[in-house]
Amino acid sequence: MLDTVSLKKFEDYLRYERNSSDNTIASYMRDMRQLSEYLDSHDMSNLIDASEKELNSYLDYLRRAGKSPATILRHIATMKRFYQHFFSTGDIVQDPAAGLVGEKTEKKLPQILTSKEVELLLEQPDCTDAKGYRDRAMLELLYATGIRVTELINLNVSDVSLPVGVIRCRKKDKERVIPIYAKAVRALAEYMEFIRPQMIASPDEQSLFVNVSGERMTRQGFWKIVKNYQAKAHIEKDITPHTLRHSFAAHLLENGADLRSIQEMLGHSDLSSTQIYAHIVRKELKDVYNKAHPRA
Fold first, then answer.
1. Which of these, 179, 186, 144, lies nearest to 165 by C-alpha position?
2. Looking at the structure, do residues 47 and 186 belong to the same domain, yes or no?
3. Which residues make Cβ contacts (< 8 Å) with residue 67, sequence separation at least 6?
4. Would you say 255 and 248 are in contact if contact means Cβ atoms under 8 Å apart?
5. One domain, residues 237 and 157
């Protein structure tokens, strides 16, 4: 049976000590439950008592099942986090995951849209009904600020200052203020003044963006909205809400913004996370050069 006690302790550690996001916790717990189920089904040790040999057996099982090297590395990272925690608390005397290694994978650069593709995508919402006005405001705001989709749907009306042209974005105990370009301010103003009052289910609703039921928009709901407009725009690239975040950062960099400013707007704690956009821009320039230079 599942090692429910250890799993609960690990979940509490992630939630209350590391203050991890719900998505991070869900990912870690899913990986560890799968490991626990494997150990149980193969009559091996409990999760907390597993040996390095048993963990490697599980990794071999994942490889035989056709899991990618990137997925294997994620499982290893999850196991390391789990067993490091219990080793540090003294629940185990030896860390069985310390020596686990996976195949190195080539780090793929995130996909971005061209400026023309962004314009095409943002033109898709048909502002003839409430949904169209709302969708236009959401897409414009996402590209204007580069915030994460979770941050977008968690925005409240009180987080928006239209006269100043900024939004306030909170993540855990940190807060950042991000400017909004004029076209996004207009789209947001129209939605907030004329559309949102018609859509909300209750006058007490604080959510900035609501679904057709008048309640806070969900990640899945917004993902479907983006995919719908990708199809309408006939853009072949696989667009997700995060694609607009990547495009926001890369386009700012292309047009002269410095990495520190972009780091602050994106909410990256480490500049190295932001530097990937410099690699994207360099690759884009190289691609243009190779296509355009007569001797390339």
1. 179
2. no
3. 75
4. no
5. yes
Phi, psi at 258, each rounded to 5°: -90, 155
- Report yes or no on 93 lying in a domain: no
Identify the CATH number of the domain in which residue 17 sits.
1.10.150
**pLDDT at res. 295:** 53
Percent share of the chain, pLDDT over 70: 88
Q: Specify the number of domains making up the chain.
A: 2
Q: DSSP character for 210? A: B
Tokens for 117, please give them.
């593709």
Token pair 């490991």 is at which residue? Answer: 35
Q: Three-state DSSP class for 146?
A: coil
List, by residue number, the catalytic residues.
148, 171, 242, 245, 268, 277
Angle of the 22-41 helix axis to the 69-88 helix axis, nearest 10:
90
Q: What are the structure tokens assigned to 292, written together?
A: 């355009």
How confident is the model at residue 293, as a pLDDT? 46
Looking at the fold, whether 265 and 146 belong to one and the same domain comes out as yes
Question: What one-character DSSP code corresponds to residue 164?
Answer: T
CA contacts within 13 A on the Cβ side of 167? 28
Q: Is the CB of residue 10 less than 8 Å from the CB of residue 32?
A: yes
Whether the predicted model's global pTM rises above the 0.70 cut: no
